[in-house]
Write a structure and sequence with these properties.
By secondary structure, the protein is of the alpha/beta class. The protein has 9 helices and 11 strands. The two termini are 29 Å apart.
Length: 258
Amino acid sequence: MATRIGIAGVTGRMGQLLVEEVTAAGAELAGGIGRTGSSKPPPAGIAAIPDIGALAAASDVVVDFTNAATAQPYAAALAASGKAWVLGTSGLSGTDEAAVEATARHIPVVYASNFSTGVNLVLALAERMGAALPSDGYDAEIMEMHHRQKVDAPSGTAIGMGRAVAKGRGVVLSDVMESGRDGHTGARRTGAIGFAALRGGQVVGEHTLIFAAATEHISLTHRAFDRRAFATGAVRAALWAVGRQPGLYSMMDVLGMT
């Protein structure tokens, strides 16, 4: 029997790509719901589901690319449903992430800042580089650029890069993060991980991690040219998640990199 995949955010940019990738993977599309407050109908031929609870009931796994405002109510609904959850929404607060972690005690949750295979390889390298390049000699800076419609900054992927570097260095990102420098900031803090966010045009996503020392600079860059890379990875994660034990998983788990 084919895996039934429901799509939360089916009317958004990722929605049509997810529909296509679900079909390409040989899975069954259970239906979808749009973003909260959107009156845009689902793509032709896709069953419109009234709410997240009904979508979960009709699915084996829900793929969620909506917005941060839905994270907590969706977490509660998915936990009650017992169905798997693939979460790709960015911009979650600490409280939102705590709700996701609580839900993962009841169901399998794959939560990733980015579902691209290439990005996840970059994150693995970022952690190793963070461990190998000491913070007192190599300043870590992350620069990202996205389309002008993106509402959160820094991007989830940039935060993921920062967390990877921080993990490699044995620190917590929130303790060393510097974002949005402006005015007379004083000298750069040793050990800080800096962020710069650019917005413009229709850039799908560009991320560069720089380790800057007095004697050398090392850069690690990923450029996304098509959102399909994210959709393909999300569907792969959905198929992987069904039948797993409850827990909070990452795309690294899906790719067998943990």
